[in-house]
Amino acid sequence: MARLCPPVCIVFFICWFLYIFCPHFISLFRWSYDWTTNTVLKHKTNAIKTSKYNPFTFLPLNLFEQFQRIANAYFLFLLVLQVIPQISSLSWFTTVVPLVLVLTVTAAKDATDDIVSKLRGEKWMNVQVGDIIKLENNQFVTADLMLLSSSEPLNLVYIETAELDGETNLKVRQALTVTGDLGEDVEKLADFNGEVRCEPPNNRLDRFMGTLTYAGQKYPLDNEKVLLRGCTLRNTQWCFGLVLFGGPETKLMQNCGKTTFKRTSIDRLMNVLVLCIFGFLAFMCTVLAIGNCFWELNEGSNFTAFLPRQDGNEATFSAFLAFWSYVIILNTVVPISLYVSVEIIRLGNSFYIDWDGKMYHAANDTPAEARTTTLNEELGQIQYVFSDKTGTLTQNIMTFNKCSVNGKSYGEVTDSYKVDFSFNSLADPRFVFHDHSLVEAVKLENPEVHAFFRLLALCHTVMAEEKREGELFYLAQSPDEGALVTAARNFGFVFRSRTPDSVSIVEMGRQRSYELLAILDFNNVRKRMSVIVRSPEGKLSLYCKGADTIIYERLHRSCSKLMDVTTEHLNEFAGEGLRTLALAYKDLDEEYFNGWKRRHHEVSTSLDGREGKLDELYEEIEKDLLLLGATAVEDKLQDGVPQTIELLSKAHIKIWVLTGDKQETAENIGYSCNLLREEMNEVFVVSGNSPEDVRQELRNALTSMKPEEGSVFPPESTLGNGGVKAMADEAVNGEYGLVINGHSLAYALERGSELAFLRLACLCKAVICCRVTPLQKAQVVELVKKHKQAVTLAIGDGANDVSMIKAAHIGVGISGQEGMQAVLSSDYSFAQFRFLQRLLLVHGRWSYLRMCKFLRYFFYKNFTFTFVHFWYAFFCGFSAQTVYDEWFITLYNLVYTALPVLGMSLFDQDVNDAWSFQHPQLYVPGQLNLYFSKKAFFKCALHSCYSSLVLFFIPYAAVHDTVRDDGKDVADYQSFALLTQTCLLFAVTIQVREEMSYWTAVNTFFVLGSLAMYFAVTFTMYSDGMFLTLPSAFPFIGTGRNSLNQPNIWLTILLTSILCVLPVVTYRFLFIQLCPTINDKVQVRQAKATPPPPPRRTRIRRTSSRRSGYAFSHAQGYGDLVTSGRFLRRPALPRSSGFSHAGRTTTSFSPMGRSAGYSPTGRPQNAKVSDVEVTSLQMYKTIRDPAL
Asked: Which spans does this entry mark as compositional bias, Basic residues (predicted)?
């Protein structure tokens, strides 16, 4: 056989390697053919990359990132210099070993962080475009799918889109009938050969355009036929879908933004300071090189007898070599151990977060997790927090808390005893109520109370499933409506089933069926919903519920007194942050209703002005109502949210809420969590529908806040490009809030308006952006980062929060009900929003304080160490001779001074966590960069310069012309080197003691142990045995015992230590006495007393005229579907009437607001189109088809 040539063998080997070890590489793309353009299209797989590296790119990418640190590149340059024998006076391994150690430790940490962030979703990563996949109930939709078929009638599916838009109400999607006929027949599905033509990948969550060609016919595809990645399937046994887009091409991932490498502000400042240090190093080396040149010209000729020059080496060349020699000797101004120590400190502080039991959520067994170890100190400098609402501030649970019936308020908690609902075998065991008087009124058959709960049991669009006798499961399109029906259920009015023309309820044990004659549906303009029913006795009634302002306008004048009392109750409910709703009814005349119904049918079938005419008919019948009362539902916040927001506000942290939910809900939550308050001067609402309207609204708001200058828009050139100048903070009289809609925000973020919007938002105490897309969330964060140059934090729990989590300096993921997508993209994660206060005010502040103390001390000790070399150069002929022993130079940063500074940086606390919460103003210095800045750095350099002068000239004077007790001379180089380095070590050790605020046994051991280690190593290395073993490596034979047994040596050490520390002690004493900081004051208080217990928050009764006009259905059109019969899943089971006394059966209600089984759209499923492009006009005509 002929031998294969080497290139062929290599190619064969590579292919074999990829096939065996990288099977996913071959299927990286799915190919399809575009017949119109005769081109081959590549579609990406469904794999989502949340990590930065893979095994092939880790080494080059990580090294590239590490050498972006100027110091690492500098030490690589030093390594090159040290291999040149004419320049280096130190061995090459003195730089190689630390550099390799630094790169290895950092690479190991980066690899660990990257592995932690890797997405755990291998189950779906091989899904390709064109695949057909099956989803089951409660499963996460993992790709953008075209719905083919489902288990529900009419091919409906119910999805929760909280991860996409923040809304907890369920939405309905419906497959085409032609594909729905495929059912779950796997063979038919496998033979499906339709062709889908659609728009390219984009980030529009509310829009989809495409067509399906199947069996020679074309069918339109829109958003109602598509399931987007990020949705969750609810109340649907199964469905099949065709994959349209996968992985990064899905709409969700198109909104997620790009993963960036995050660095702290201290890292960025360090790069600037390192450049300054390089400049100063070059200056020192230049001065010493010039000195070497002059010395060679004036004094060097006197030494040529025993130090002969090489041929051609003149003074200038000697100065050139001296310059590079001093670059190597003075390189300790930027010690490479600095970066190793920084990584260790960050790792340790990350472990504190992981180990913090006070951030552990026992309910779902979720601890806090630091998913990155490089951003800890940034947590101590946060100025802006951008928070999601749904699942982050709230629990997505609605509870019926209070009500007002016929002028009497119910629901006040007077004791801890819960109401006993054992009389009702159909009650939901999870429902909790504390006011026993309401149950007594029900049992006493109070007619108004009965009418109140009868209305709640009849006027809704909730569906009921009863798989077994007595086992009820409510499917509510919105969670608040489900809470109201559940309340009626527990108080004896149990909604049990419905048909298109009837509603069956159980009233205090009696089975009753009401004829459903009409549903007057909800919409955002009406803000109310009504039903017209006929009782079993033949009585016609209209029941209405809606916003109190809307209901009050339609009440009979006889209700004026009751309305005044109910208004007081509503004000109390609203003052507690509850969502209120008014209830009313009226009895109808049979003859009048028949005429009204006939006119209603005529209007419903007309084509011109149908909606306006229907509104007129609704207005006609919904008047002269009789008020029954009001309900108060709580949109439950997570525990501790109001307290957390209040505490962060006291720490001067501004909180903006960015949510995809609707405006009314967002505002209500804003008031509930104390973000918005009634005491505010004004809450501005920006809702313009054009750029001009938005600009005018912004201008008006600015004028209201600052009349003298508010109407003037800040010019774009104020900031320029590249963040040359940050927008300064401004003061304003009073407190203001801002609420802006998503469509208005799009105009506000345009170039001509963004600065005005930012200025207005920064002047406000609270900002709420509602109906925003994931991309808009990221744009708001980027706007603040760019123009305010402030440190930002974004916190959320859903996939729609990923973009802002990636955009912010710090991203925090909540392990909540919306999946793990936000957690996987975050830097830190925990289970509850309230843990954010501990993350920032305790861990963040401590980490920042420790890092700043570490940097100040580290620069001090190394500058002091290096400057002594500089002064010594003037006494050694600028010969690049080191002042210290070579072993001391090697071990100074690695052994002698490493542990004390690490102990300070890992264990130090200025005040404990209790005092940190008691005084949140302690957080402010971090926001202002007061602990470490360019100013603090230059102060440190001046301090080091002073200390180095003391440490060189005091020992120099002490040993000059000095003799020992026995008359022998001690003024030799080795004795002077030993004395100088001992004085240096004592001085920096005393300095670290001055820096520490919190002493532990570990700190004490590190400090004393380092001094003991120094003397042990010194006497060992200067011993006779070491000299006899390696004479060239240990030349300081006997220096330790000969010098350190002299009293004048110890007196010199004492004198230098006192002179070095005296200015620091004096300065700090005077500073604390004359102008103490908040830290100094709290430290004094902590030393004198124990921290007071946290204040108990008593519930203050307050009233409010602001009430939530919240919608009990989030989309109109459900009334028509209820009466159409198309929502029904299965016939109702035969059931007994009355309340069974055989014991309580298991019941269930989903607090998440599961959807009813119907579609909000009544579109025909097989409408054919003649063209590929489906225009909006065609879609409109389809909806308006008279055949409907």
From this structure: 1096-1105
pLDDT of 1121 reads: 55
Q: Report yes or no: 125 and 88 within 8 Å, Cβ to Cβ.
A: no
Q: Which of 913, 406, 920, 832 is nearest to 648 (CA)?
A: 920
For helices 315-329 and 265-298, angle between their N-to-C axes, nearest 10 degrees: 150
| Amino acid residing at 506 | V
Amino acid sitting at position 1145:
T
Q: What is the mean pLDDT of the chain?
A: 80
Looking at the predicted structure, is the pLDDT value of residue 1135 above 50? no
Structural element, H or E, at residue 601: helix 590-604
pLDDT mean over 800-828 = 82
Whether 388 sits among the annotated catalytic residues: the reply is yes
The phi-psi region of residue 91 (left if phi > 0; otherwise alpha if psi is between -120 and 50; otherwise beta) is: beta
What's the mean pLDDT in 742-771? 91
Beta-bridged to residue 581, according to DSSP, are 631
- Per residue in 407-464, pLDDT tens? 999 988 777 688 888 888 888 888 989 889 999 999 999 999 999 999 999 998 888 8
The answer to whether the predicted template modeling score (pTM) of the entire model surpasses 0.85 is no
> 121: pLDDT confidence band, cut at 50, 70 and 90?
very low
**R_g over Cα of the chain:** 38
Answer whether 981's CB lies under 8 Å from 1014's CB.
no
Give the torsion sign (CA, 388, 393, 399, 402). negative
Q: Is the pLDDT of residue 790 over 60?
A: yes
Handedness of CA 715, 721, 723, 725 (dihedral sign): negative
* Residue 643, token pair as written in the block: 């307290």
Q: The tokens of 215 are what? A: 């069996």
Of the residues 165, 388, 548, 635, which is catalytic? Answer: 388
Q: Rounded to the nearest 10 degrees, what angle do helices 93-117 and 337-355 cross at?
A: 30
Q: Which helix (H) or strand (E) holds 838?
A: helix 835-838
* Residues making up the binding site: 388-390, 481, 522, 545, 579, 659-661, 771, 777, 797, 800-801
Angle at 348 between CA 347 and CA 353, to 5 degrees: 95
pLDDT tens, position by position, 159-216: 888 777 656 667 888 899 899 989 888 888 988 988 999 988 888 877 888 999 998 8
> Considering Cα of 715, then 719, then 725, then 726, what sign does the dihedral take?
positive
Query: What gap in Å lies between CA 622 and CA 530, rounded to an integer?
Result: 8
Length of the chain in terms of residues written: 1188
Ranking 69-78, 122-131, 204-213, 1106-1115 by mean pLDDT, the lowest is 1106-1115
- Neighbour tally for 414: CB within 10 Å: 9
Strands 493-499 and 394-405: unpaired
* Helix pair 315-329, 70-82: axis angle to 10 deg: 130
- DSSP codes joined into one string, 374-439: S-GGGGGS--EEEE-STTTTEEEEEEEEEEEETTEEE----SSPPP--TT-TTS-TT-----HHHH
Binding residues for Mg(2+), as ranges, are: 388, 390, 797, 801
Tokens of 442: 């029900």
Contact 401, 434 (CB under 8 A): no
Distance between CA atoms of residues 187 and 339, nearest Å: 62
Given a contact cutoff of 8 angstroms between Cβ atoms, the answer to whether 893 and 337 are in contact is: yes
